């Protein structure tokens, strides 16, 4: 963005600066912020459409509320780019999602204005309820505002939070950012007018006075109060769609037009004075201000770098992604087996199932942001002979751990889990890295856990999984495949059988999934230096190929394990446990993986280099086990 295009924004270093502006200046500032968001996401990638839709909302919340004393919790954080820009991160916003740069989601460590760290959906209401309760315990009079939307209300966790906070009757403001429904101008104008009246202090005091007066009338007072309340609720039910929230204990306000800064300021100033739990329904347009995102908000929800003038992605060509291969194989499996169905949790496009949903609409289920329901639902299908494939990102399957264990594996039901974005995911950072699934799945009885070395092996593993007759998980990485030839005929892989890709007597690299080809590359470099190492594609984390792994460990005496997963409880731990049980004691052993930490944002290449999970890292690990040989 050119410097002369951001004259107002250049003056905004904090919300305190924001509060010095007029409404007209805020409107102009919103457009400057949109231009900065578009140019930054076009370069870096990110969550474009939801953040464009919430610019005015972010400005108004910081304009009306006394942040950071008042707390704003952004659910997921997809909408929070404007919030970041006006809270001291304007000059560094160009580093968004880059290694060492601005985090992709709100983070407590990054700014005092980030009241709660987020990244996974539907946590804001529960977290805000806790913050409001803490305010009462430790003393304070600050406001707590939870901004939730962008599909997050499809999650049961959101309703658990509503159920709790509505009953507690503590001061809490929930802003429902509705960017899916439209609202006609007439309804919007009437709604805005009514809400300004119904949230105004005069109305609130007058209503309380009338009700108190009616209660004093002997004999009929309480009955008249009930009739008056019923009349009010009937009026609200006729004009606004908020009765569900009213029944849960919230005062409902809305819908408000989310891009009218003057309306929003007037209403939020009134709302700020209300006591008890309040739900404010704000209607915004996803992708606002960028035509391509407005017309196709799903594609521009989370997007890689793109050309601003065309909306087309910068990266074109190359092999298909693992996600694309998964989608194609699912169609093929469904064609061959009428019992195969696909389940996803609000990620049809992200998991590669769009074409499947068009080809087999009666065999495709999008359960919304409800991973727990999705897995239990799959268990029910499997109990009656259906073959469900549950496609969920690795980081989101964590939310359904109990259902995987209790509803699927305990009953030994044939559900296949397709874990997309497993391993190092990259720029979305710590909340999205898929680095825990091997550890949290391998301890569960009855579950087979496997990871392909490339996209061709992925299709065979999926075929194996749906043919297994029991629970299985296939985890595969984000990004493009390696461009290997794709076999025309699907074949089953023997359960618990690895494959030796290269022989060598000096050491052995036991690799799983995305670390296999880097291990082969490292082996080529070592061979040029006269060091011959074996490379085993282990394929299975559970069950391990015990005979193969023990034999090569004993023959070489030097072992390197490599995995894109946390070391604690992961693949390398499984190998160590095997060696201990079998009395195998290698001379030297190094486990490569992620130590006891969360991995932050950066490109996959940068992060793999940092944590030694590329060819260079495996090369160094082999040299370590060779040291002193």
Structural features, described:
There is one protein chain. With 629 residues, the chain is of the alpha/beta class. It folds into three domains: 3-201 and 244-295, 3-Layer(aba) Sandwich (Rossmann fold); 322-475, Rossmann fold (3-Layer(aba) Sandwich), CATH 3.40.50.970; 501-626, 3-Layer(aba) Sandwich (Rossmann fold). 43% of the residues lie in helices and 14% in strands. The protein is built from 25 helices and 17 strands. The strands form three sheets. The protein has a seven-stranded mixed beta sheet with strand order 7-6-8-9-11-10-15, with helices on both faces. Helix 4 (55-64) crosses helix 12 and helix 14 (322-336) packs parallel to helix 20 (455-466). The longest helix has 22 residues, at 23-44. Mean pLDDT is 90; it is low at 181-188.
């Amino acid at each position: 963005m050119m410097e002369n295009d951001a004259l107002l924004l250049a003056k905004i270093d904090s919300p305190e600066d924001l509060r010095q502006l007029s409404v007209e200046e805020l409107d102009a500032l919103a457009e400057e912020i949109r231009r900065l968001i578009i140019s930054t996401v076009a370069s870096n990638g990110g969550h474009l459409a939801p953040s464009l839709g919430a610019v005015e909302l972010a400005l108004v919340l910081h304009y009306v509320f006394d942040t950071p004393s008042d707390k704003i919790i952004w659910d997921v954080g997809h909408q929070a780019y404007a919030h970041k820009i006006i809270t001291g991160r304007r000059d560094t916003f160009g580093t968004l999602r880059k290694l060492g740069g601005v985090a992709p989601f709100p983070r407590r460590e990054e700014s005092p204005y980030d009241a709660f760290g987020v990244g996974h959906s539907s946590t804001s209401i529960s977290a805000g309820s806790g913050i409001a309760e803490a305010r009462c315990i430790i003393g304070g009079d600050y406001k707590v505002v939870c901004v939730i939307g962008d599909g997050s209300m499809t999650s049961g966790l959101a309703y658990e939070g509503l159920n709790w906070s509505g009953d507690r009757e503590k001061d809490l403001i929930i802003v429902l950012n509705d960017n899916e429904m439209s609202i006609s101008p007439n309804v919007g104008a009437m709604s805005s007018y009514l809400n300004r009246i119904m949230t105004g202090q005069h109305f609130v005091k007058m209503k309380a006075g009338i009700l108190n007066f009616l209660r004093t009338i002997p004999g009929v007072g309480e009955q008249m109060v009930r009739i008056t309340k019923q009349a009010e609720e009937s009026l609200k039910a006729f004009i606004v769609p908020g009765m569900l929230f009213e029944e849960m204990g919230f005062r409902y306000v809305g819908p408000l037009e989310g891009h009218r800064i003057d309306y929003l300021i007037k209403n939020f100033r009134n709302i700020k004075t209300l006591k008890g739990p309040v739900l404010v329904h704000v209607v915004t347009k996803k992708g606002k201000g960028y035509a391509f995102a407005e017309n196709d908000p799903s594609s521009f929800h989370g997007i890689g770098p793109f050309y601003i003038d065309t909306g087309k992605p910068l990266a074109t060509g190359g092999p298909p992604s693992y996600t694309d291969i998964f989608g194609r194989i699912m169609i093929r499996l469904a064609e061959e087996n009428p019992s195969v169905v696909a389940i996803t949790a609000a990620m049809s496009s992200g998991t590669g199932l769009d074409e499947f949903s068009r080809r087999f609409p009666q065999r495709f289920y999008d359960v919304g942001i409800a991973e727990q329901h999705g897995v239990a639902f799959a268990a029910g299908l499997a109990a009656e002979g259906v073959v469900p494939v549950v496609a969920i990102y690795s980081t989101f399957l964590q939310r359904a751990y109990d259902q995987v264990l209790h509803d699927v594996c305990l009953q030994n039901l044939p559900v296949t889990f397709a874990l997309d974005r497993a391993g190092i995911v990259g720029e979305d950072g710590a909340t999205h890295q898929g680095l825990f699934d091997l550890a949290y799945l391998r301890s569960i009885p009855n579950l087979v856990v496997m990871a392909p070395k490339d996209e061709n092996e992925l299709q065979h593993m999926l075929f194996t999984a749906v043919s297994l007759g029991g629970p299985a998980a296939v985890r595969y990485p984000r990004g493009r495949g390696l461009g290997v030839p794709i076999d025309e005929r699907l074949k089953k892989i023997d359960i618990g059988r690895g494959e030796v890709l290269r022989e060598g007597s000096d050491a052995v690299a036991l690799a799983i999934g995305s670390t296999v080809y880097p291990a082969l590359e490292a082996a080529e470099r070592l061979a040029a230096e006269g060091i011959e190492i074996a490379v085993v594609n282990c394929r299975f984390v559970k069950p391990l190929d015990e005979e193969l792994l023990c034999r090569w460990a004993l023959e070489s005496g030097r072992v390197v394990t490599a995995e894109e997963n946390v070391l604690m409880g992961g693949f390398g731990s499984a190998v160590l446990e095997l060696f201990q049980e079998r009395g195998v004691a290698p001379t030297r052993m190094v486990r490569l993986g992620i130590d006891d930490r969360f991995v932050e944002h950066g490109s996959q290449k940068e992060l793999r280099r940092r944590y030694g999970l590329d060819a260079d890292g495996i090369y160094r690990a082999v040299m370590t086990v060779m040291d002193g040989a």
